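Before the break, one more example. Copy the sequence into your notebook; we will annotate it together after we see the structure.
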Amino acid sequence: MTVTAPRTATHTSVGIRISPGTDGTEPYRALLSVDGGSDVDVPFRTPADMERFAGVFERDATAAERQAAGEALFEALLGGALNTIWREVLAAADPDRPARLCLDVRPTELRHLPWELLRSDGRWLFRRPDLLCRRGTVAAGAAEPDPQEELGPLRALVVLCNPREHRLLAEKELAWISGTFDGLPGATHVEVLDGPSRAELADGIDQLRPHILHFIGHGMPLPGRGTALNFNWRAAPDGPRDWSLDAGQIADLTRWQPHLVVLNACRTTDSGPAVGTGERVRGLADAFLDAGARAAVSVQADVDSPDAVIFSSRLYRAIGRGTPLDEAVALARTDLARHEERPGDAWALPVLMTRTAPEEVLPIVHTPPPPSTVDAIRRHGTYERLRRFVGRSAERRAAWWALDPPVRGGEPGTGHPVLVISGHSETGARQTGKSLLADWCLAVCFLRGHRAVSVNLSGGARDWLTVLREIRLQVVSEAQLTPLPAEAFADFDAALERLLPAAPGTGGAEGGDPLSVDGPRFDDEAGRADERRHEIVDRLLGGLSKGAGGAPMVITLDQADRIQAELFTGWLYERLVLPIARGDAAPLRLVLVASREWVADALPRADRHLIGEVSLGDFESSQLMRLVRAFGNRLGYPVDERVQNVVMQLQEMNPYTRVDIFGLLMSVFSDWYSAAERGA
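Here is what the structure looks like once it is written out:
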């Protein structure tokens, strides 16, 4: 399935380009094209008194002034010679097949006009259900090349520019973003930077290489530099330190350019007057597009933080469901119009600008074996609980990239075919979230086209043969995301029948079914013990490889610490784990889930360079409110004052918080518990 499904063929495409005049008799010309056909080129005469448009979004402006501005802009653009063609476009469009309008304003002195207020016949163009509107580039001549599709998850980096100011509302916006995206198991991945320095911001972008870069902050007008983002660097050695990011610094900020940049900060669309000239410097959104971003969402005036939260929550809910970007922004505008904090047409403040077709901004694909989809993961019993798996963003990335490293610069990254997910609690808790992280990794790998199977060893202490039987029985179960065919293990089954000693006269293996977990034990005294062990383990590896069918396959051994360490370090490690770690059993990849203490005892130190490891602990109490907000949003019950008071008390009690804190909160707050039961 694709995260963004191409829909261009079913939409009428309308492009309007405003360009400087060429012969000196008129300042500007407007060119209109429909579906790339013949262009109609007419003079564009700017409305009188354009200066009055600059204040239509100020707090003292009236709704009538905004309507008048929108009608004047429409009359100048589409009220003359282009009106007949425009009405034909509208007549052919409907909400089920809206027309796509791309407005390309080339003269810098016209870009700051409030085009999102275009209004005709008593209706806002950017609010019509039969139109999808954006600013962008109307190509002249050759069509734009299609961006290369990329395997998911869809990666997003959220930057809290200045955590010192208005932190509460910023945290609410973050909770909606992470609650929406992280609630799609395996399909999306969100990380957060709190008040980074310039170097930390650049490193964070280059390391994660996000598809979406989202800034939550405040736009600060700077003389001669337009609007800049104000940052508060919390980690400065001499205390908090402020710095700013303006349009002139974007191009050299990072090597990686995100596909979509969301600037949820005031006046980030604005260009400003350059010092000593009549020209205007670029706005931040233009600078990101010029640097290589495919699209940018910015704000063209002051926006109230609650309105920003409403817009972001709806935008990411739509993007997460695979909605093309222009449609996602239109849905967010509609939501904002219904719920905006104050009257003022805040829905028109966001500006969507693109350099490519909206459905090609985020061409992220998933390749699960048919008929499985992301929805199948949501419904799957084992993976349903991942909807409420919050936090652990750094550990998620480390684990996923260890198993399936991304391609960097055309070359695959380095990873480890064997990954250990370990845990240790400072509070003495039994749970650290190891199994949830392992299941999340399996969901990611599944959506990247791998086979994914999980084996739970919770039944008690195991010897090497019992573990092999458990693997054989569980990987073929229909409870798996991608169950393996039982016939792939025919050689392993035959080897058990042949190599385990049979009781005289029974015609079968002593003690019952050799495939059963409680079947006959291995007899070390029966002769050729080492040779028989080798063959049994090798036959299982062969069955797993055959069952994978040439595709990469990830197998998880959950609660591996139920295997006695001294038993594991023998045959299981030497004949099962080590060949996979060395790459001799490709395409197999293995995840061991165990306590940190068991890992220290069971894995030879000399081989640790062959094995990736991610370790989990308790939550840091300083991050608890953020996690609880995300958890509450997924339940459908955002944090209210009573929950906030309890969490604040918990934060003061200990620097660490147990990961089962959410179970405690659900036991205290009945509405949370009921919501969790309904979603189970």
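The mean pLDDT is 85. DSSP finds 21 helices and 29 strands in the chain. Try to locate both features in your own notes.
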